[in-house]
User: What shape does this take?
Amino acid sequence: MLSKIPILRALGQSPAEVVVRPPGERFLSAPLPIAPYAASHRAFAWLSLAAYSATPAARKRAARAVHESRARAAPDGTPLAPRDPVAILAAAGWTPWSPFGSPAIWRRIDDAHLRVEVWENPSHSAVAVSFGGTVLDNEKDWLSNLRWFIPDPRDEYTQVVRTFVGPFCAEYRRRFPGNARPLLYSTGHSLGGGLAQQFAYALPLEDGVPRVEAVYAFDPSPVTGYFSVPRALRDENKRNLFIDRVYERGEILALVRSLLNLIYQPPAHHPAIRSVRYSLFYGWNPLADHSIVQLANKIDRAAAAASAGGAAPPSLL
Assistant: This one.
């Protein structure tokens, strides 16, 4: 009965299922098997987590995880070490680009607290630009989150458009001068999910510059910088663009996005915006449910379990 009532049909979701808001729809679907979604999101969840790795908060978390792991062991007595997203990505063939552009550019990026990395996986012919999200005690991140209410904001969204996009495009053209160019993706968590969407809208219309194939935004901010990009440019960049907004049930920004979807119907195309909700956590703390550490690990486990059972399609990890 519930599956026939749009506003109620997602209520019965289990941890082995996702519910989906297809492009152009306001309401979530009835529950669906988790396997294909976990497989497609797995690599991008780790890429989004890796973008946090250089922050002081991430270093403290890693040190705490090392300390806690000493008390934990597998059934055979092997210590359970914390999972390093950089090592996981490297094992799957992902390598980060070395710094490009001038030191002055990266000083401006660092001053704004914009955390952005570029990763390449030659075996999958893929390049992914990943953006770090909000660090709770960083005021620059909060200024970016609140840019709707700040006149003439000069924040991380501004730096994506004015400072990062140009050098990235120059480096992409340098690395791939021919016609066989890898597909380009962008990804991020929370604030980083908003920045990943703005990056896709902001690429210049120049020879040799690709369009973003898809954006994978985890627990994303409703702020995307859409109106900060000239209309003609964003209209061209959003043609055939696919945006996946991936989130955990009950995380703190989910209600805001749901209300906005009721007010403004998500587009069915140009860009096609889909929402995918997981139910992998076992608590009702909206802040804890916003964790990309937990989400990346649990999506990875779900994808690995499905793959072991022959149920998951190939992925980028």
